[in-house]
Give the backbone structure.
Amino acid sequence: MTDTAIQAAGLGRRYGRRKRDVLADCSFRLPKGRICALVGPNGAGKSTLLAIAAGLLKPTAGTVEVLGGPPTAARSRIAYVAQHKPLHPQLTVAATLRLGAELNPGRWEQSAAERIAYGTGGLEPKAKIRSLSGGQRTRVALALAFGKRPELLLLDEPMADLDPLARHELTGALMAEAVEHGTTIVMSSHVVAELEGSCDYLLLLQGGRMRLAGDTEELLAAHALLTGTGTDFAPHTVIERRASGRGHTALVRVADTTEESAAGTTGPARHREQPTLEELVLGHLRSHQAPAGDIDHTDHNDHTHQQETAA
Amino acid sequence: MSTFAVKGLPWTVLRLHRTALLVWGAGLLAATITLIRMYAIGDDARAFAGPCGSPGTSLASCLEITELTVDDTYRDTLSQVATVLSYLMFPVAAWAGGALIGREMENGTAQLNWTQSVSPARWLTAKLALPALLLATGTTTAVLLNVWAHQDGDPNLVGDWYYPDVFVSTGPVAVAYVLAGLSLGALAGLLTRRALAGAGVGFAVTLALYNLLERYREDLWPAQTVIGRAALNQPRSALQIDRGAITAEGQEENGVFACVDSDSLADLEKCKAATGLTDFWATQHPRSHFWPLQFVESGIVLALSAVAVLTAFLVLRRRTP
Protein backbone atom coordinates (compact mmCIF):
# COMPACT_ATOMS: atom_id res chain seq x y z
CA MET A 1 0.00 0.00 0.00
CA THR A 2 2.93 2.33 0.61
CA ASP A 3 3.55 2.79 -3.11
CA THR A 4 0.01 4.02 -3.70
CA ALA A 5 -0.81 7.72 -3.78
CA ILE A 6 -4.55 7.49 -4.31
CA GLN A 7 -6.75 4.43 -4.30
CA ALA A 8 -10.45 4.78 -4.96
CA ALA A 9 -13.11 2.10 -4.90
CA GLY A 10 -16.64 2.72 -6.12
CA LEU A 11 -16.28 6.40 -5.33
CA GLY A 12 -19.42 8.48 -5.85
CA ARG A 13 -20.70 11.93 -5.02
CA ARG A 14 -24.16 13.41 -5.38
CA TYR A 15 -25.06 17.00 -4.52
CA GLY A 16 -28.22 17.67 -2.55
CA ARG A 17 -31.47 17.31 -4.43
CA ARG A 18 -29.86 17.11 -7.84
CA LYS A 19 -30.56 13.73 -9.30
CA ARG A 20 -27.45 13.09 -11.36
CA ASP A 21 -24.34 11.75 -9.67
CA VAL A 22 -21.46 14.13 -10.21
CA LEU A 23 -19.17 11.21 -9.62
CA ALA A 24 -20.24 7.58 -9.86
CA ASP A 25 -18.53 4.26 -9.26
CA CYS A 26 -14.99 5.55 -9.71
CA SER A 27 -12.31 2.97 -9.08
CA PHE A 28 -8.67 3.48 -9.82
CA ARG A 29 -5.22 3.31 -8.27
CA LEU A 30 -2.58 5.98 -8.77
CA PRO A 31 0.95 4.85 -7.87
CA LYS A 32 3.28 7.23 -6.06
CA GLY A 33 5.72 9.40 -7.94
CA ARG A 34 3.58 9.84 -11.03
CA ILE A 35 2.56 12.98 -12.83
CA CYS A 36 -1.05 12.26 -13.55
CA ALA A 37 -3.35 14.07 -15.95
CA LEU A 38 -6.97 14.11 -14.83
CA VAL A 39 -8.79 14.77 -18.05
CA GLY A 40 -12.40 15.14 -19.00
CA PRO A 41 -14.93 17.55 -20.46
CA ASN A 42 -16.39 20.37 -18.38
CA GLY A 43 -18.63 19.00 -15.67
CA ALA A 44 -17.09 15.53 -15.80
CA GLY A 45 -16.46 15.53 -12.03
CA LYS A 46 -12.74 16.39 -12.04
CA SER A 47 -13.03 19.11 -9.39
CA THR A 48 -15.25 16.90 -7.23
CA LEU A 49 -12.76 14.04 -7.41
CA LEU A 50 -9.87 16.34 -6.46
CA ALA A 51 -11.81 17.93 -3.59
CA ILE A 52 -12.60 14.45 -2.22
CA ALA A 53 -8.95 13.45 -2.48
CA ALA A 54 -7.94 16.69 -0.74
CA GLY A 55 -10.22 15.88 2.21
CA LEU A 56 -12.56 18.79 1.58
CA LEU A 57 -15.58 16.85 0.42
CA LYS A 58 -17.24 13.71 1.70
CA PRO A 59 -17.95 11.05 -0.90
CA THR A 60 -21.56 9.85 -0.85
CA ALA A 61 -20.50 6.37 -1.98
CA GLY A 62 -17.38 4.25 -2.00
CA THR A 63 -14.04 4.79 -0.36
CA VAL A 64 -10.84 6.62 -1.10
CA GLU A 65 -7.42 6.24 0.46
CA VAL A 66 -4.77 8.90 0.07
CA LEU A 67 -1.15 8.14 0.97
CA GLY A 68 -2.30 5.01 2.75
CA GLY A 69 -5.13 6.43 4.86
CA PRO A 70 -8.20 8.60 4.78
CA PRO A 71 -7.63 11.98 3.07
CA THR A 72 -8.18 13.85 6.36
CA ALA A 73 -5.28 12.00 7.97
CA ALA A 74 -2.96 13.12 5.19
CA ARG A 75 -3.92 16.80 5.38
CA SER A 76 -0.39 17.97 6.13
CA ARG A 77 1.12 15.88 3.33
CA ILE A 78 -1.28 16.98 0.58
CA ALA A 79 -1.31 20.30 -1.20
CA TYR A 80 -4.37 21.35 -3.15
CA VAL A 81 -4.91 24.28 -5.44
CA ALA A 82 -8.59 24.88 -6.13
CA GLN A 83 -9.84 25.96 -9.51
CA HIS A 84 -10.60 29.57 -8.58
CA LYS A 85 -7.41 29.94 -6.47
CA PRO A 86 -8.95 31.19 -3.21
CA LEU A 87 -6.64 33.59 -1.36
CA HIS A 88 -7.16 36.28 1.26
CA PRO A 89 -7.56 39.50 -0.75
CA GLN A 90 -6.47 41.74 2.14
CA LEU A 91 -3.06 40.10 2.55
CA THR A 92 0.15 40.83 0.66
CA VAL A 93 2.01 38.12 -1.21
CA ALA A 94 4.61 37.98 1.56
CA ALA A 95 1.92 37.71 4.27
CA THR A 96 0.24 34.93 2.30
CA LEU A 97 3.49 32.97 2.30
CA ARG A 98 3.92 33.70 6.02
CA LEU A 99 0.45 32.24 6.50
CA GLY A 100 1.61 29.06 4.77
CA ALA A 101 4.67 28.97 7.03
CA GLU A 102 2.61 29.44 10.19
CA LEU A 103 0.08 26.78 9.23
CA ASN A 104 2.65 24.16 8.23
CA PRO A 105 5.20 24.16 11.03
CA GLY A 106 8.01 21.71 10.42
CA ARG A 107 7.14 21.18 6.77
CA TRP A 108 7.32 24.62 5.23
CA GLU A 109 10.18 25.45 2.90
CA GLN A 110 10.25 29.18 2.33
CA SER A 111 12.76 29.00 -0.53
CA ALA A 112 10.54 26.63 -2.52
CA ALA A 113 7.58 28.97 -2.11
CA GLU A 114 9.62 32.06 -2.94
CA ARG A 115 11.06 30.47 -6.06
CA ILE A 116 7.55 30.13 -7.48
CA ALA A 117 6.24 33.48 -6.26
CA TYR A 118 9.21 35.76 -6.83
CA GLY A 119 11.11 33.83 -9.55
CA THR A 120 11.54 35.00 -13.11
CA GLY A 121 8.91 37.58 -13.93
CA GLY A 122 7.61 37.07 -10.42
CA LEU A 123 5.62 39.14 -8.00
CA GLU A 124 6.35 41.96 -5.61
CA PRO A 125 6.32 40.67 -2.00
CA LYS A 126 4.39 43.76 -0.92
CA ALA A 127 1.71 43.52 -3.60
CA LYS A 128 -1.78 42.99 -2.21
CA ILE A 129 -3.51 39.85 -3.40
CA ARG A 130 -6.57 41.87 -4.46
CA SER A 131 -4.41 43.83 -6.92
CA LEU A 132 -3.15 40.71 -8.73
CA SER A 133 -4.33 39.34 -12.06
CA GLY A 134 -5.71 35.83 -12.40
CA GLY A 135 -2.39 34.42 -13.53
CA GLN A 136 -0.52 36.13 -10.72
CA ARG A 137 -2.97 34.74 -8.18
CA THR A 138 -2.30 31.29 -9.61
CA ARG A 139 1.40 31.85 -8.94
CA VAL A 140 0.72 32.68 -5.29
CA ALA A 141 -1.61 29.70 -4.88
CA LEU A 142 1.04 27.43 -6.37
CA ALA A 143 3.72 28.96 -4.16
CA LEU A 144 1.60 28.07 -1.11
CA ALA A 145 1.26 24.53 -2.43
CA PHE A 146 4.97 24.11 -3.20
CA GLY A 147 6.15 25.68 0.05
CA LYS A 148 4.34 22.95 1.91
CA ARG A 149 6.62 20.30 0.38
CA PRO A 150 3.70 17.95 -0.23
CA GLU A 151 3.92 14.29 -1.03
CA LEU A 152 0.82 14.64 -3.17
CA LEU A 153 0.05 17.76 -5.14
CA LEU A 154 -3.53 18.14 -6.38
CA LEU A 155 -3.97 20.90 -8.94
CA ASP A 156 -7.39 21.79 -10.31
CA GLU A 157 -7.02 23.46 -13.73
CA PRO A 158 -3.69 25.03 -12.77
CA MET A 159 -2.93 26.25 -16.30
CA ALA A 160 -6.26 27.90 -17.03
CA ASP A 161 -5.25 31.53 -16.60
CA LEU A 162 -1.52 31.33 -17.23
CA ASP A 163 0.11 32.80 -20.31
CA PRO A 164 2.17 30.41 -22.47
CA LEU A 165 5.44 31.47 -20.87
CA ALA A 166 4.18 31.03 -17.31
CA ARG A 167 2.62 27.76 -18.36
CA HIS A 168 5.96 26.55 -19.62
CA GLU A 169 7.68 27.66 -16.42
CA LEU A 170 5.09 25.96 -14.26
CA THR A 171 5.43 22.73 -16.17
CA GLY A 172 9.18 22.92 -15.66
CA ALA A 173 8.78 23.60 -11.95
CA LEU A 174 6.38 20.69 -11.58
CA MET A 175 8.72 18.32 -13.35
CA ALA A 176 11.66 19.44 -11.24
CA GLU A 177 9.60 19.00 -8.08
CA ALA A 178 8.50 15.53 -9.09
CA VAL A 179 12.02 14.45 -10.05
CA GLU A 180 13.73 15.95 -7.02
CA HIS A 181 11.31 14.91 -4.29
CA GLY A 182 9.30 12.12 -5.85
CA THR A 183 6.14 14.18 -5.46
CA THR A 184 3.01 12.69 -6.92
CA ILE A 185 1.14 15.27 -8.97
CA VAL A 186 -2.44 15.16 -10.18
CA MET A 187 -3.40 17.92 -12.59
CA SER A 188 -6.82 18.35 -14.06
CA SER A 189 -7.60 19.97 -17.36
CA HIS A 190 -10.18 19.84 -20.09
CA VAL A 191 -7.46 20.58 -22.63
CA VAL A 192 -5.52 17.36 -23.19
CA ALA A 193 -2.74 18.96 -25.24
CA GLU A 194 -1.89 21.10 -22.22
CA LEU A 195 -0.73 18.06 -20.27
CA GLU A 196 0.40 15.78 -23.04
CA GLY A 197 4.15 16.28 -22.75
CA SER A 198 4.36 16.32 -18.99
CA CYS A 199 2.27 13.47 -17.64
CA ASP A 200 2.96 9.79 -17.44
CA TYR A 201 -0.37 8.68 -16.04
CA LEU A 202 -3.88 9.32 -17.27
CA LEU A 203 -7.27 9.42 -15.59
CA LEU A 204 -10.09 10.10 -18.01
CA LEU A 205 -13.40 11.14 -16.50
CA GLN A 206 -16.62 11.59 -18.38
CA GLY A 207 -20.08 12.16 -16.98
CA GLY A 208 -18.80 11.32 -13.52
CA ARG A 209 -17.41 7.95 -14.60
CA MET A 210 -13.84 6.83 -15.01
CA ARG A 211 -13.36 5.92 -18.66
CA LEU A 212 -9.64 5.23 -18.65
CA ALA A 213 -7.06 4.93 -15.94
CA GLY A 214 -3.49 3.89 -16.44
CA ASP A 215 0.09 4.54 -17.39
CA THR A 216 0.10 6.63 -20.58
CA GLU A 217 2.74 4.50 -22.26
CA GLU A 218 0.77 1.36 -21.58
CA LEU A 219 -2.47 2.95 -22.65
CA LEU A 220 -0.96 4.20 -25.89
CA ALA A 221 0.68 0.84 -26.58
CA ALA A 222 -2.65 -0.89 -26.06
CA HIS A 223 -4.31 1.26 -28.71
CA ALA A 224 -3.73 1.81 -32.39
CA LEU A 225 -5.08 3.99 -35.14
CA LEU A 226 -5.85 1.75 -38.08
CA THR A 227 -6.79 2.94 -41.53
CA GLY A 228 -8.23 0.43 -43.94
CA THR A 229 -10.60 0.15 -46.85
CA GLY A 230 -13.26 -1.84 -45.07
CA THR A 231 -15.16 -1.30 -41.86
CA ASP A 232 -13.98 -4.56 -40.37
CA PHE A 233 -11.11 -4.16 -37.95
CA ALA A 234 -11.27 -7.60 -36.35
CA PRO A 235 -9.85 -8.94 -34.15
CA HIS A 236 -9.34 -5.56 -32.50
CA THR A 237 -11.97 -3.85 -30.39
CA VAL A 238 -13.09 -0.72 -32.14
CA ILE A 239 -13.39 2.26 -29.82
CA GLU A 240 -14.32 4.77 -32.47
CA ARG A 241 -14.50 4.58 -36.23
CA ARG A 242 -14.91 7.31 -38.79
CA ALA A 243 -14.82 7.65 -42.54
CA SER A 244 -11.59 9.08 -43.90
CA GLY A 245 -10.49 9.91 -47.45
CA ARG A 246 -9.33 6.42 -48.42
CA GLY A 247 -11.64 4.35 -46.34
CA HIS A 248 -12.13 4.13 -42.62
CA THR A 249 -9.97 5.06 -39.70
CA ALA A 250 -10.53 3.46 -36.38
CA LEU A 251 -9.14 3.82 -32.93
CA VAL A 252 -8.88 0.28 -31.66
CA ARG A 253 -7.74 -1.46 -28.59
CA VAL A 254 -5.36 -3.95 -30.06
CA ALA A 255 -5.94 -7.60 -29.47
CA ASP A 256 -3.20 -9.85 -28.18
CA THR A 257 0.11 -9.07 -29.92
CA THR A 258 0.64 -12.43 -31.54
CA GLU A 259 -2.89 -12.47 -32.88
CA GLU A 260 -2.46 -8.94 -34.05
CA SER A 261 0.61 -9.69 -36.12
CA ALA A 262 -1.13 -12.65 -37.60
CA ALA A 263 -4.15 -10.55 -38.41
CA GLY A 264 -1.87 -7.92 -39.87
CA THR A 265 -0.54 -10.34 -42.45
CA THR A 266 -3.73 -12.13 -43.38
CA GLY A 267 -6.33 -9.38 -43.05
CA PRO A 268 -7.12 -6.56 -45.41
CA ALA A 269 -4.36 -3.98 -45.99
CA ARG A 270 -4.22 -1.52 -43.12
CA HIS A 271 -2.11 1.42 -42.23
CA ARG A 272 -1.21 1.41 -38.56
CA GLU A 273 -0.28 4.45 -36.52
CA GLN A 274 0.34 5.11 -32.88
CA PRO A 275 -2.38 7.47 -31.63
CA THR A 276 -1.41 10.58 -29.72
CA LEU A 277 -2.74 10.97 -26.21
CA GLU A 278 -5.18 13.55 -27.49
CA GLU A 279 -6.50 11.17 -30.18
CA LEU A 280 -6.85 8.45 -27.59
CA VAL A 281 -8.77 10.69 -25.20
CA LEU A 282 -10.98 12.18 -27.89
CA GLY A 283 -11.75 8.77 -29.31
CA HIS A 284 -12.87 7.47 -25.95
CA LEU A 285 -14.88 10.60 -25.16
CA ARG A 286 -16.66 10.52 -28.53
CA SER A 287 -17.47 6.85 -28.33
CA HIS A 288 -19.45 7.47 -25.16
CA GLN A 289 -21.52 10.32 -26.42
CA ALA A 290 -21.71 9.12 -30.00
CA PRO A 291 -24.40 10.90 -31.95
CA ALA A 292 -25.97 9.21 -34.96
CA GLY A 293 -23.64 9.15 -37.96
CA ASP A 294 -20.42 7.61 -38.92
CA ILE A 295 -19.14 7.20 -35.42
CA ASP A 296 -19.81 3.80 -34.05
CA HIS A 297 -21.09 3.41 -30.59
CA THR A 298 -19.02 0.43 -29.68
CA ASP A 299 -19.13 -2.18 -27.04
CA HIS A 300 -18.31 -0.30 -23.89
CA ASN A 301 -20.11 -2.42 -21.45
CA ASP A 302 -19.16 -2.55 -17.83
CA HIS A 303 -16.94 -5.52 -18.38
CA THR A 304 -14.50 -3.81 -20.73
CA HIS A 305 -14.64 -0.69 -18.62
CA GLN A 306 -13.53 -2.62 -15.61
CA GLN A 307 -10.63 -4.08 -17.53
CA GLU A 308 -9.51 -0.63 -18.51
CA THR A 309 -9.66 0.81 -15.09
CA ALA A 310 -7.73 -2.14 -13.74
CA ALA A 311 -4.96 -1.46 -16.26
CA MET B 1 1.48 44.85 18.07
CA SER B 2 0.04 41.91 19.88
CA THR B 3 0.78 39.62 16.94
CA PHE B 4 4.50 39.09 17.37
CA ALA B 5 4.37 36.67 20.26
CA VAL B 6 1.63 34.61 18.62
CA LYS B 7 2.45 31.70 16.32
CA GLY B 8 0.70 29.33 13.98
CA LEU B 9 -3.03 29.26 13.57
CA PRO B 10 -3.73 32.00 16.17
CA TRP B 11 -1.32 34.26 14.27
CA THR B 12 -3.27 33.77 11.05
CA VAL B 13 -6.58 34.56 12.77
CA LEU B 14 -5.18 37.80 14.20
CA ARG B 15 -3.45 38.72 10.95
CA LEU B 16 -6.53 38.07 8.81
CA HIS B 17 -8.75 40.16 11.06
CA ARG B 18 -6.24 42.87 11.82
CA THR B 19 -8.68 45.65 10.94
CA ALA B 20 -11.28 44.31 13.34
CA LEU B 21 -8.59 43.93 16.00
CA LEU B 22 -7.50 47.55 15.56
CA VAL B 23 -11.08 48.82 15.63
CA TRP B 24 -11.76 46.84 18.80
CA GLY B 25 -8.57 48.11 20.42
CA ALA B 26 -9.29 51.71 19.46
CA GLY B 27 -12.87 51.45 20.71
CA LEU B 28 -11.70 50.02 24.00
CA LEU B 29 -9.11 52.75 24.41
CA ALA B 30 -11.71 55.44 23.69
CA ALA B 31 -14.12 53.87 26.20
CA THR B 32 -11.39 53.71 28.86
CA ILE B 33 -10.39 57.35 28.40
CA THR B 34 -14.03 58.48 28.37
CA LEU B 35 -14.93 56.55 31.52
CA ILE B 36 -11.89 57.75 33.44
CA ARG B 37 -12.83 61.30 32.49
CA MET B 38 -16.40 60.67 33.64
CA TYR B 39 -15.14 59.35 36.95
CA ALA B 40 -13.03 62.49 37.33
CA ILE B 41 -15.92 64.88 36.73
CA GLY B 42 -18.32 62.74 38.77
CA ASP B 43 -17.99 64.82 41.95
CA ASP B 44 -18.57 68.11 40.11
CA ALA B 45 -21.55 66.61 38.32
CA ARG B 46 -23.04 65.56 41.67
CA ALA B 47 -22.44 68.98 43.17
CA PHE B 48 -24.09 70.78 40.32
CA ALA B 49 -26.96 68.37 39.99
CA GLY B 50 -27.99 69.03 43.58
CA PRO B 51 -30.01 71.87 45.03
CA CYS B 52 -28.92 75.45 44.45
CA GLY B 53 -29.48 78.81 46.08
CA SER B 54 -28.73 82.51 45.82
CA PRO B 55 -25.09 83.53 45.94
CA GLY B 56 -23.93 83.73 49.53
CA THR B 57 -25.88 80.76 50.81
CA SER B 58 -24.18 77.48 51.63
CA LEU B 59 -25.67 75.89 48.49
CA ALA B 60 -24.13 76.09 45.09
CA SER B 61 -25.03 79.20 43.17
CA CYS B 62 -27.99 78.64 40.84
CA LEU B 63 -26.62 81.27 38.47
CA GLU B 64 -23.38 79.35 38.16
CA ILE B 65 -25.14 76.03 37.77
CA THR B 66 -27.23 77.05 34.79
CA GLU B 67 -24.07 78.20 33.06
CA LEU B 68 -22.05 75.07 33.82
CA THR B 69 -23.09 71.88 32.12
CA VAL B 70 -20.79 69.39 33.79
CA ASP B 71 -23.71 67.31 35.02
CA ASP B 72 -25.22 67.25 31.53
CA THR B 73 -21.90 66.09 30.09
CA TYR B 74 -21.66 63.37 32.73
CA ARG B 75 -25.25 62.24 32.25
CA ASP B 76 -25.21 62.26 28.43
CA THR B 77 -21.83 60.62 28.07
CA LEU B 78 -22.65 57.79 30.48
CA SER B 79 -25.96 57.29 28.72
CA GLN B 80 -24.13 57.00 25.38
CA VAL B 81 -21.61 54.55 26.84
CA ALA B 82 -24.49 52.45 28.20
CA THR B 83 -26.15 52.40 24.79
CA VAL B 84 -22.96 51.43 22.97
CA LEU B 85 -22.22 48.66 25.49
CA SER B 86 -25.68 47.16 25.25
CA TYR B 87 -25.83 47.37 21.42
CA LEU B 88 -22.35 45.89 21.00
CA MET B 89 -23.63 42.45 20.08
CA PHE B 90 -25.17 43.70 16.82
CA PRO B 91 -21.92 44.80 15.14
CA VAL B 92 -20.14 41.78 16.64
CA ALA B 93 -22.74 39.41 15.14
CA ALA B 94 -22.58 41.14 11.76
CA TRP B 95 -18.79 40.94 11.78
CA ALA B 96 -18.73 37.29 12.84
CA GLY B 97 -21.33 36.31 10.22
CA GLY B 98 -19.67 38.39 7.53
CA ALA B 99 -15.93 38.89 7.77
CA LEU B 100 -15.03 36.12 10.23
CA ILE B 101 -16.87 33.14 8.74
CA GLY B 102 -19.21 34.05 5.86
CA ARG B 103 -16.57 35.64 3.66
CA GLU B 104 -14.18 32.72 4.14
CA MET B 105 -16.90 30.27 3.19
CA GLU B 106 -17.89 32.38 0.18
CA ASN B 107 -14.48 32.89 -1.39
CA GLY B 108 -13.08 29.47 -0.51
CA THR B 109 -10.35 30.65 1.86
CA ALA B 110 -11.81 28.41 4.57
CA GLN B 111 -11.02 25.45 2.31
CA LEU B 112 -7.58 26.94 1.72
CA ASN B 113 -6.94 26.66 5.46
CA TRP B 114 -8.26 23.12 5.52
CA THR B 115 -5.70 22.10 2.91
CA GLN B 116 -2.94 23.89 4.80
CA SER B 117 -2.74 21.19 7.47
CA VAL B 118 -5.58 22.69 9.58
CA SER B 119 -8.64 20.52 10.12
CA PRO B 120 -12.05 22.25 9.84
CA ALA B 121 -12.74 21.74 13.56
CA ARG B 122 -9.40 23.28 14.58
CA TRP B 123 -10.02 26.15 12.20
CA LEU B 124 -13.45 26.91 13.70
CA THR B 125 -12.09 26.55 17.23
CA ALA B 126 -9.43 29.17 16.57
CA LYS B 127 -11.89 31.41 14.75
CA LEU B 128 -14.21 31.37 17.78
CA ALA B 129 -11.87 31.11 20.76
CA LEU B 130 -9.56 34.00 19.95
CA PRO B 131 -12.25 36.60 19.25
CA ALA B 132 -14.23 35.28 22.23
CA LEU B 133 -11.25 35.84 24.51
CA LEU B 134 -10.60 39.37 23.23
CA LEU B 135 -14.28 40.33 23.24
CA ALA B 136 -14.90 38.96 26.73
CA THR B 137 -11.87 40.61 28.34
CA GLY B 138 -12.49 43.90 26.56
CA THR B 139 -16.17 44.03 27.42
CA THR B 140 -15.52 43.02 31.03
CA THR B 141 -13.02 45.86 31.32
CA ALA B 142 -15.48 48.35 29.86
CA VAL B 143 -18.30 47.20 32.16
CA LEU B 144 -16.10 47.44 35.26
CA LEU B 145 -14.94 50.92 34.27
CA ASN B 146 -18.53 51.89 33.60
CA VAL B 147 -19.67 50.74 37.06
CA TRP B 148 -16.70 52.56 38.59
CA ALA B 149 -17.59 55.77 36.72
CA HIS B 150 -21.19 55.48 37.93
CA GLN B 151 -19.87 55.86 41.51
CA ASP B 152 -22.89 55.94 43.83
CA GLY B 153 -25.23 55.26 40.90
CA ASP B 154 -27.34 58.38 41.46
CA PRO B 155 -30.37 57.64 39.25
CA ASN B 156 -30.71 61.31 38.38
CA LEU B 157 -27.31 61.17 36.72
CA VAL B 158 -26.74 57.63 35.53
CA GLY B 159 -30.33 56.42 35.17
CA ASP B 160 -32.21 53.84 37.22
CA TRP B 161 -30.68 50.37 37.41
CA TYR B 162 -33.63 48.84 35.57
CA TYR B 163 -33.38 51.03 32.45
CA PRO B 164 -32.57 48.54 29.65
CA ASP B 165 -29.27 50.21 28.66
CA VAL B 166 -28.15 50.72 32.26
CA PHE B 167 -29.10 47.18 33.24
CA VAL B 168 -27.20 45.57 30.37
CA SER B 169 -24.13 47.82 30.61
CA THR B 170 -23.49 47.39 34.35
CA GLY B 171 -23.35 43.62 34.71
CA PRO B 172 -22.20 40.29 33.26
CA VAL B 173 -25.12 40.38 30.81
CA ALA B 174 -23.06 42.73 28.61
CA VAL B 175 -20.31 40.11 28.27
CA ALA B 176 -22.84 37.33 27.60
CA TYR B 177 -24.45 39.47 24.88
CA VAL B 178 -21.18 40.01 23.06
CA LEU B 179 -20.37 36.29 23.17
CA ALA B 180 -23.86 35.50 21.88
CA GLY B 181 -23.27 37.96 19.05
CA LEU B 182 -20.06 36.13 18.15
CA SER B 183 -21.51 32.62 18.25
CA LEU B 184 -24.83 33.41 16.57
CA GLY B 185 -23.05 35.43 13.88
CA ALA B 186 -20.55 32.64 13.26
CA LEU B 187 -23.36 30.10 12.93
CA ALA B 188 -25.18 32.41 10.51
CA GLY B 189 -22.02 32.74 8.41
CA LEU B 190 -21.51 28.99 8.39
CA LEU B 191 -25.11 28.26 7.40
CA THR B 192 -25.46 30.94 4.72
CA ARG B 193 -21.89 30.51 3.41
CA ARG B 194 -22.11 34.11 2.20
CA ALA B 195 -20.52 37.25 3.66
CA LEU B 196 -23.44 39.61 3.20
CA ALA B 197 -26.13 37.07 4.06
CA GLY B 198 -24.15 35.91 7.09
CA ALA B 199 -23.78 39.47 8.37
CA GLY B 200 -27.47 40.20 7.75
CA VAL B 201 -28.77 37.04 9.39
CA GLY B 202 -26.39 37.47 12.33
CA PHE B 203 -27.59 41.01 12.86
CA ALA B 204 -31.28 40.09 12.54
CA VAL B 205 -31.04 37.15 14.95
CA THR B 206 -29.29 39.19 17.64
CA LEU B 207 -31.76 42.05 17.15
CA ALA B 208 -34.61 39.60 17.76
CA LEU B 209 -32.82 38.17 20.80
CA TYR B 210 -32.22 41.64 22.25
CA ASN B 211 -35.86 42.64 21.91
CA LEU B 212 -37.12 39.35 23.26
CA LEU B 213 -34.96 39.67 26.36
CA GLU B 214 -35.89 43.29 26.90
CA ARG B 215 -39.57 42.39 26.67
CA TYR B 216 -39.42 39.45 29.09
CA ARG B 217 -36.57 40.54 31.36
CA GLU B 218 -38.87 41.25 34.35
CA ASP B 219 -40.23 37.68 34.18
CA LEU B 220 -36.81 36.11 34.58
CA TRP B 221 -36.97 36.24 38.39
CA PRO B 222 -40.06 36.02 40.62
CA ALA B 223 -41.28 39.53 41.44
CA GLN B 224 -41.88 40.77 44.94
CA THR B 225 -45.50 41.46 45.96
CA VAL B 226 -46.27 44.24 48.38
CA ILE B 227 -49.67 45.21 49.84
CA GLY B 228 -51.26 48.09 51.65
CA ARG B 229 -49.57 51.47 51.71
CA ALA B 230 -46.31 49.97 50.40
CA ALA B 231 -48.18 49.13 47.21
CA LEU B 232 -49.38 52.69 46.84
CA ASN B 233 -46.02 54.22 47.59
CA GLN B 234 -43.40 52.21 45.70
CA PRO B 235 -39.88 53.60 45.83
CA ARG B 236 -38.13 54.79 42.67
CA SER B 237 -35.46 52.18 43.17
CA ALA B 238 -37.96 49.42 42.49
CA LEU B 239 -38.96 48.32 38.99
CA GLN B 240 -42.77 48.50 39.06
CA ILE B 241 -44.42 45.68 37.19
CA ASP B 242 -48.13 45.55 37.98
CA ARG B 243 -50.55 46.88 40.53
CA GLY B 244 -54.15 46.46 41.52
CA ALA B 245 -56.76 46.56 44.24
CA ILE B 246 -59.17 44.26 46.01
CA THR B 247 -62.81 45.25 45.88
CA ALA B 248 -65.36 45.00 48.68
CA GLU B 249 -66.63 41.80 47.01
CA GLY B 250 -63.17 40.32 47.46
CA GLN B 251 -62.30 40.46 43.76
CA GLU B 252 -58.88 41.45 42.42
CA GLU B 253 -58.70 44.21 39.88
CA ASN B 254 -55.57 44.86 37.87
CA GLY B 255 -54.17 48.21 36.88
CA VAL B 256 -56.03 50.23 39.45
CA PHE B 257 -54.41 53.56 40.15
CA ALA B 258 -57.02 54.79 42.65
CA CYS B 259 -55.74 56.25 45.95
CA VAL B 260 -52.08 56.42 44.83
CA ASP B 261 -52.09 60.12 45.73
CA SER B 262 -53.15 59.45 49.35
CA ASP B 263 -50.54 61.20 51.47
CA SER B 264 -51.54 60.03 54.92
CA LEU B 265 -53.27 57.07 56.48
CA ALA B 266 -56.38 59.22 56.97
CA ASP B 267 -56.39 60.15 53.31
CA LEU B 268 -56.11 56.51 52.40
CA GLU B 269 -59.02 55.49 54.62
CA LYS B 270 -61.11 58.23 53.07
CA CYS B 271 -60.20 57.09 49.59
CA LYS B 272 -60.97 53.46 50.45
CA ALA B 273 -64.39 54.40 51.67
CA ALA B 274 -65.07 56.51 48.58
CA THR B 275 -63.97 53.87 46.08
CA GLY B 276 -65.21 50.80 47.90
CA LEU B 277 -61.74 49.16 47.65
CA THR B 278 -60.49 47.18 50.63
CA ASP B 279 -56.78 46.72 49.89
CA PHE B 280 -54.04 47.37 47.35
CA TRP B 281 -51.21 45.29 45.96
CA ALA B 282 -48.27 45.80 43.64
CA THR B 283 -45.54 43.63 42.12
CA GLN B 284 -42.01 44.95 41.76
CA HIS B 285 -38.35 44.12 41.45
CA PRO B 286 -36.46 45.83 44.26
CA ARG B 287 -32.83 46.83 43.69
CA SER B 288 -31.77 43.58 45.36
CA HIS B 289 -33.12 41.68 42.36
CA PHE B 290 -30.42 43.18 40.13
CA TRP B 291 -27.99 40.27 40.57
CA PRO B 292 -30.52 37.42 40.27
CA LEU B 293 -31.87 39.05 37.11
CA GLN B 294 -28.32 39.51 35.75
CA PHE B 295 -27.37 35.90 36.46
CA VAL B 296 -30.52 34.37 34.99
CA GLU B 297 -30.30 36.47 31.83
CA SER B 298 -26.57 35.82 31.44
CA GLY B 299 -27.22 32.11 31.90
CA ILE B 300 -29.90 32.05 29.22
CA VAL B 301 -27.78 33.99 26.75
CA LEU B 302 -24.66 31.91 27.41
CA ALA B 303 -26.64 28.68 27.05
CA LEU B 304 -27.92 29.95 23.71
CA SER B 305 -24.35 30.77 22.66
CA ALA B 306 -23.24 27.28 23.63
CA VAL B 307 -26.03 25.77 21.53
CA ALA B 308 -25.01 27.97 18.59
CA VAL B 309 -21.36 26.92 18.90
CA LEU B 310 -22.29 23.25 19.16
CA THR B 311 -24.57 23.54 16.12
CA ALA B 312 -21.78 25.26 14.17
CA PHE B 313 -19.40 22.38 14.89
CA LEU B 314 -22.05 19.80 13.97
CA VAL B 315 -22.83 21.60 10.71
CA LEU B 316 -19.14 21.72 9.87
CA ARG B 317 -18.67 18.05 10.69
CA ARG B 318 -21.65 17.04 8.57
CA ARG B 319 -20.35 19.03 5.62
CA THR B 320 -16.69 18.03 5.69
CA PRO B 321 -15.02 14.63 5.89
Chain B touches chain A at residues 7-9, 11-12, 15-16, 19, 107-109, 111-119, 319-321 (CB under 8 Å). The longest strand of chain B covers residues 239-247.
